Amino acid sequence: MSVMACFDLPIHQNPLRTRKDVERALLQLLEPVRGRFTAGNAGLCLGAHAAHYGESSARMEGFSRMLWGLGPLWAAGGGEDWLPLFREGLVNGTDPDHPAYWGRPFDYDQKVVEMAAIATTLLLCGERMNFTPREAENLHSWLAGAEGLELPRNNWLFFRVLAETAFRRMGWGWNEAQLQEDLARLDGWYLEEGWYCDGRPTQMDYYIPFGMHYYGLIYAWAMERDDPERARTFRERAARFAGDFLYWFEDGGRAVPFGRSQTYRFAQGAFFSALALAGVEGVPWGVMKSRVLGNLRDWFAQPIFDSGGLLTVGYGYPNLFMSEQYNAPGSPYWALKAFLCLALRSDHPFWTAEEEVPRLEPLRAIPPARMLAARDESQVQLFPAGQHCVNELGNCGAKYEKLVYSSRFGFSVPRGDSLEEGAFDCCLAVSEAGQDRWRAQRGFEDFRLEGDRYWRKFSPLPGVTVEVTVTPDFPAHRREYIITTDRPIDAADGGFAIPAKDSHPLEADMVEWGEGGVVVRAPWGTSAIRCLSGGGEPVLVKAWPNTNLLHPLTRIPTIRLSLPAGTHRFATLVTGTVPKI
């Protein structure tokens, strides 16, 4: 990461304790985009790789996503030098007669996604823009272009809700029928105990906190007087959700990578910023503060920036292999949603409270999310039972359907179908006997949460059925398999991927073989797998580079089995430990 000379400290040395610290961090994140504006200041050119929606929308996206941080900053009276640049971009991008015009939105258009940041900025500080009547008319007309469009049936509907809400605040005409239709459909995705699904009952990921709840809380804050009943509902649901969502974070603020859109990184803590804005004390102020600031501190200590200081696509390091088809160079700046807390003045309880670490149970069942959470202060493990993303967005099976996800070991995505390319950590993979062409779970037939364990059933290959019962015993867990196959197959049960600094084999004294298993011990942590019953050969898989989200080079302790046609039972014990903080 580059050290920006205009700041006293580089961002990874920012203590992030006060509002002033957080404001400085935002400005440090923004500084590298200076000089990267396109003509008319209506776009940002932040890189050369592509997303499915093409270059022009990608540049508009980069521009809009900066507003997730700037809108809150402007609302509190800061960021003066950025205001003229972005005001000009908003005016030119929505003027049909200007060469920088973004174009009218169409069905399923990425530009509709980016309307959310613009609408939120209008809600927070629209009066600071001082639009002329013509400029306001153009902006209104462009945002209203989303009305009547076909959109994905998920959190996208909130983008249109926020736009209509902003129209009311600005005194512009709004489409009440469209607003109520979208709100009703969003309400239909509410499950129970504070949980929504993201349009599908098998998908409960970070889009619930930094999407569904985040936007609902902005609505509750903006519409408290005009729609008090729905505002109260959004607040109550968020308060209930907060108690479960705390289990996705370590005491220090690091969160578990799970699901799609991991490149949005510190958007993980954005929900707690939105709680603060809406005045929802679902958890104490000090806990909200520690989740937002602790998560930022953890992220800024990782190599997530390029040499010019720009956020990269990736997770713990720059990595396009784990990206989705909708990740353009500016996409990672969705992370700026975490800075919504900057809309709060320095005397707000969020800022005056002392950071507080919540007291949590070592194991918690979260039935609406179809998962268990096990933890201590240094690591969190999520055990999803019935998650599945039906869309083909990029390695979705690996992002939702592994047996366990860890805040410290991360998870891996495949780059091919050999055992090394596939990097099958924390899951079972199968292959036709002797062919070395492996497949892991993609979809499931059934699942159950059973108190302190879960059971799931799936078919990784035609004619092959797997039933597995997973029982957490943190930091270990037990896997009990029943595999039925109509022909000979090979099976590989992978443990946690552990980082390796060099490409050569790990030092002999770091690897222990015996008792039907393999243990890798390093100063950083320990990963182990042992076959408890059913036979099997322990191996140490040298995963392809850049398959794991957190660690560029890894090894995966694995149990391999050769299974003839028939029904087979075996069990393994998998452990992943890190030193106590």
In short:
The chain is an alpha+beta fold. It is built from 15 helices and 20 strands.
Can you describe what's shown?
There is one protein chain. The chain is built from 15 helices and 20 strands. The chain has helices spanning 19-30, 54-65, 67-75, 83-93, 110-125, 133-144, 157-170, 176-187, 208-222, 228-245, 270-278, 285-300, 349-352, 396-400, 419-422, and strands spanning 190-192, 195-196, 363-366, 371-375, 380-384, 405-406, 428-432, 438-439, 446-449, 454-461, 464-473, 476-485, 489-494, 498-499, 511-514, 517-522, 525-533, 537-542, 554-563, 566-577. The protein has an 8-stranded antiparallel beta sheet with strand order 9-10-11-12-20-17-16-15, with no helix packed on it. Strands 7, 8, 13, 14, 18 and 19 form a 6-stranded antiparallel beta sheet that branches. A 4-stranded antiparallel beta sheet has the order 3-4-5-6, with no helix packed on it. It is globular, with a radius of gyration of 24 Å. Mean pLDDT is 95; it is low at 1-5.
